[in-house]
Automatic annotation (TrEMBL):
InterPro entries, per the entry: AB_hydrolase_fold, Dienelactn_hydro, Dienelactone_hydrolase-like
Protein's recorded name: Dienelactone hydrolase family protein
Keywords (A to Z) from UniProt: Hydrolase, Signal
Domain Dienelactone hydrolase, residue spans: 66-273
UniProt entry tagged with the keyword Metal-binding: no
Positions in coiled-coil regions: none
Signal peptide: 1-18
GO molecular function: hydrolase activity
Pfam families found in the cross-reference section: DLH
Length: 277
């Protein structure tokens, strides 16, 4: 089977955080999220039995893959849709929190499970799950997720996007490469593609969010990614924060609330501009 070619990069991605401001500031005012960073952080500090109840439901895609679907309260379609792609840990409670957070902002958010129901408890398990992913099957699952957002009668998304972190950040970019209809793709510290020819299939606008202290994705790689996007004619923005890998994950050891809040404000505004217009 065709396996992922970036497993070694994933081996360096171990958790979540630092402080800082983006190196480049958008000229468009940032939107404030329906769920603040402080509230989002609090969700992760509560015991599982005391945390807010999940608002989504499990769905099954045609190929058998499971997903977690969260819809805005009392909303009626058509709704902008977002494919949510988990970190290398799997589709865990943290990713469900993210999915609910996106739904609270007015999106039909569908978190896809690329691990067949498995969730890692430690980095060794996470790396083993990454290695077991078949790239062709994962792409098929993401295509099915996109079709679900477009065709489900509750959603009928006129515009779609993708977002992912770490392992999922790389797959968010690859979703844009595989789905020309996508309008937006956000990757948080996902290992990027630096070949302009491969990126040339992207029609979506791309937002890349990286930490300057992230040793798994050096700044030279980010610069090469930025250059390749430009050469491919992809509309894009790259934001960098004085933070480590996985700085936006409150459940991890590298979480940086200030950088995470700033990045989310930019992400929220980007998604609103590209998917709600």
């Amino acid at each position: 089977m065709k396996r992922l070619t970036w497993v070694l990069a994933a081996a360096l991605m171990l958790g979540a955080c630092a402080t800082g401001k983006p190196s480049e500031v958008d000229r468009t005012p940032s939107a404030t999220g329906a769920v603040s960073e402080e509230e989002f952080k609090a969700m992760h500090t509560l015991r599982t039995d005391a945390a807010p109840a999940r608002k989504g439901v499990e769905v099954t895609l045609p190929g058998g893959a499971k997903g977690y679907l969260s819809l805005p309260e009392n909303a009626k379609g058509p709704l902008p849709g977002i494919i949510v792609i988990h970190e290398w840990w799997g589709l865990n409670e943290h990713v469900q929190h993210w999915t609910d957070r996106l739904a609270a902002e007015g999106y039909a958010a569908l978190a896809v499970d690329l691990y067949g129901g498995k969730v890692a408890a430690n980095p060794d398990e996470a790396l083993a799950l990454v290695k077991a992913v078949d790239a062709d099957q994962a792409t098929k699952t993401l295509l099915e997720a996109h079709a679900f957002l477009k065709g489900d009668p509750r959603i009928q998304a006129p515009r779609t996007g993708s977002i992912g972190w770490c392992f999922g950040g790389g797959w968010s970019l690859r979703t844009a490469m595989a789905v020309p209809e996508l309008s937006a793709a956000v990757l948080y510290y996902g290992h990027p593609v630096t070949d302009a020819q491969q990126l040339s299939t992207i029609k979506a606008q791309v937002l890349g969010v990286f930490g300057t202290k992230d040793k798994s994705i050096p700044q030279e790689t980010v610069r090469a990614f930025e250059k390749a996007l430009d050469e491919a004619g992809v509309r894009s923005r790259i934001l960098e924060y004085d933070a480590d890998h996985a700085f936006a994950n409150p459940s991890g050891g590298r979480y940086d609330e200030r950088s995470a809040a700033a990045a989310w404000a930019e992400t929220s505004a980007f998604l609103a501009r590209t998917l709600k217009r």
